[in-house]
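Hi R.,

Here's the chain you asked about this morning:
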Amino acid sequence: MTDLNSTDAPLDGGPFAGFDLGAFDEPARRAILEASQDFRDVLAGRKPSFARTDVDAPLPADGGSHGYVGRGYRLWVCRSLSSFGGVDGYVYGPVLSFDQDIAPGNERSLAATRFYTAAQLHALLAQA
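And here is the predicted structure, written out as tokens:
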């Protein structure tokens, strides 16, 4: 497990890449560390390591999106049926929304979605 007091905790590859974890106060430090890992997990086609299924999230009817809740944040794994230029597929990726006490500014959400064909998304999810 990552030491939350360490300044070299793994934020690379996530929405806070290049930041020193020590720059964040608690409880934001734990929320940012865990949310960053969950974000990277989803980008790699895996289920989140920390956040758990959000039983209060509405049931999606879009192709398989799923809501999770973590300490200080919510994670929406977008998996929405889409079509671009006659090519059918999915928009897939993580959407993080931090609680007001963690991110009191104007924007509390970070996302990294992209378009995949069904075969591409299947390959990503199969390798996880």
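One quick note: Residues 7 and 22 are 5 Å apart (CA to CA).

Cheers,
M.
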